[in-house]
Design goal:
This protein is an all-alpha fold. It has 7 helices and no strands. It is about 50% helix and about 0% strand.
Length: about 130
């Protein structure tokens, strides 16, 4: 998509600085989590790869909403370490927390977090 914007104009729209935009364009840095929602709105789609592992899905979800681990933990009333463990695929949330995630963030949760008929997460490839 070519909107014929300068980096300065794009940075203003995205709420960041021109050097950040330059770094993103050159793949020298990734956007901060708080910048991702503005990028998605600007582009009209999510340019990030589709997450495969459960932990990647949590990171993706946080990015979609521009949330830090601490902010997500606070919303779910869990410890920040718990969110970190989910993201590192060390643990998965209990069914009740998973359902809370689905209720809180429905647009970002198509079939990615849906429980199977047994109330369990679908098997994940290892």
């Amino acid at each position: 998509m070519d909107r014929r914007l300068t980096q300065r104009q794009g940075a203003r729209i995205l709420g960041t600085t021109p050097p950040n935009v330059c770094s993103w364009e050159r793949n020298k840095a990734a956007p901060a989590t708080k910048s991702v929602p503005a990028i998605i709105r600007f582009l009209g789609y999510d340019p990030r790869p589709t997450p495969e592992r459960f932990g990647q899905r949590i990171v993706h979800l946080r990015g979609t909403y521009g949330l830090s681990q601490r902010e997500l933990a606070k919303l779910l009333r869990v410890d920040t370490l718990t969110v970190r463990r989910w993201e590192n695929d060390q643990h998965q949330p209990a069914k009740k927390l998973l359902q809370k995630l689905e209720q809180m963030f429905p647009p970002a949760i198509p079939e990615r977090f849906i429980l199977n008929s047994d109330g369990l997460l679908p098997s994940e490839p290892r």
